[in-house]
Amino acid sequence: MKILRNRAFRWILLMLGLSAIIALTGMNVLSLYDLRDRMVESEEERRIDQLDEINDTIRNQILEPLRGLYRIELEPIESSLQQTGQLPENIQDVLTRSSKSPFFNSIYFTPENVDPCNPDNSIYRFDPENQQITPTNDFPDLVCDGVGLARTKTKIQLNDFNYRWNNNFEFDTHRSLNIGLINLSESRMIGYITLTLNEDYIVNEVLPPILTNYFGKSEETGIVVWVRDWTNNRVLATNDTNIEYDRNLRDHVMGFSGSGFFDNWSLNLAFLDAPVTNAYNETLIKNLIVLGVAVLFLLGALIFMFVTAQRERHLAQRQASFLANVTHELKTPLAVMQAAGENISDGRVTEPKRLKQYGEHIYNESIRLRSMIEKLLDVARVDSGQNMIKAAPYSIHNLMNKFLNENREYIENKGFEVKFKSSAEDALCMIDSDSFETIVHNLTENAIKYSKDEKCIEYQISSNKDNVFFSISDHGMGIPKKEQKNIFKKFYRVDDSDSKSTKIKGHGLGLSIVRNMVSLNGGKIEVKSSSGKGTTFIVRFPKLNKDDVSKEQLQNIQTGSSPTENLNKHTKYVG
Ligand code: ADP
């Protein structure tokens, strides 16, 4: 009951652990996607903000030479014009500065009382060479438009009592910049400065570098930006001439007019799917891979720990039952020997026939005890890694023959027929003869133990280019398929609950010792068995090349003399 409870508890813990890992992974994946989206979004917002920056930069560059105009007293303009026909010096300076700016083509001054829309009227044109204004009738129509715009807009401003500036800037789209000059004390207009804008310079010299500067090449940044004259449906500048402006492609649009100029120009932006999101997708994929690997490690560690714990528990269970068994097994022959010895030493048994019987009892039990102790010692040696292998070139055929000569009678006395077939008389292997004997002995013991009605054991030896094989087959009860992978484990016994009454004695050590000895000698063991039909254990050792064996050794092996005595042994310690 307690074991069951513990087992259920362990499974519940495993499930909880797995669920926690899955939940955490799920959460992490979601938040990684969320993070990617946010990063893309904030990157897009940052880029949109850059459009404003472009607007401001161009506007500042245009207005640069006019900076400080608000600090100049404008009232003296009219008297200066009347007296000298020129503007006051400080205003001439502003105009000189402006005339040097590549943004402007020409500069005009229109007094408030002159209507520039009448071509007969003359206004003033600023001459950059003389740095003076000269009256002119030759001025473009856009002066009329610009002055009209500035007049209307500035008058509206003047109606607002809070307006405290002595001038007012108005852009007539991208054609001109018009400055209304105000006599603040009398709250009336003095005149207008019109600066005609150099569209070619802005379109060809200013916009392309600034766009590339902010947005790079579209194939690298994944962003295309166009400056478009929407009234004429014309792209003025772009950072990628290969991609045509398309309303459906664009993700964001803003007018230059947002900053109060170039009403009919707009800044358009498109985020191509590729690099912007790709960059973040790459980060996302990297993060997902790292997460995946970490989760795999975590799952691996969890499952490994669970499986190891299960294994250790099974081993502990098997060890506990082994200990109980062993104690019983050791006590039984001792008790028999003790009783028999006591009877003889007391002088209670004197009859020769009974004395012989008692002697046989003591002898048999001592043999049983010895084999038990030897097995335990073998296991202890394997466990402590102190197994000593004395490898020498041996013919498996000869070794098997020797074993059968010594044990045939014992096996036949148990009612078994012994068959021996060999097709590899000459094949040699580098093995330890003691190990070989232990292996064959244990397999034979098992064949005897686990056979019921058909009592026959077959020993076969064969070889191929690389290996020598020997097999030991019986026609006994066989081993169920699902148990076959376990029988070599220490303390493992097939649970033959079907035949409990005739439970065969054993400790689950024989095959573990066998497998260990086989592998210490460089070989492999496998089992072929089917329930109720019989079992075959096949052992394979690497074949020794005859050229590697000295003539003397070869002769000894072929004449069948014991190689153990005659050959120089290659001793190796395995640990
Ligand atoms: P033991 O025989 O002491 O139980 P072993 O390690 O020799 O321990 O064998 C492990 C298990 O393998 C045995 O309990 C038995 O069920 C099964 N087994 C081994 N050899 C045979 C065989 N020749 N026929 C059927 N079952 C076998």
From TrEMBL:
PROSITE patterns tied to this protein: HIS_KIN
Domain Histidine kinase: 325-545
Cross-referenced Pfam families: HATPase_c, HisKA
GO biological process assignments: cellular response to phosphate starvation
Keyword annotations of the record: Kinase, Membrane, Phosphoprotein, Transferase, Transmembrane, Transmembrane helix, Two-component regulatory system
PANTHER family documented for this protein: PHOSPHATE REGULON SENSOR PROTEIN PHOR
UniProt-recorded Gene Ontology molecular function terms: phosphoprotein phosphatase activity; phosphorelay sensor kinase activity
A Gene Ontology term for the protein's cellular component: plasma membrane
EC number: 2.7.13.3
SUPFAM superfamilies per record: ATPase domain of HSP90 chaperone/DNA topoisomerase II/histidine kinase, Homodimeric domain of signal transducing histidine kinase
Membrane-spanning intervals of the chain: 12-33, 288-309
This protein's name: histidine kinase
Reactions listed under catalytic activity: ATP + protein L-histidine = ADP + protein N-phospho-L-histidine
InterPro entries per record: BphY/WalK/GraS-like, HATPase_C_sf, HATPase_dom, His_kinase_dom, HisK_dim/P_dom, HisK_dim/P_sf, Sig_transdc_His_kin-like_C
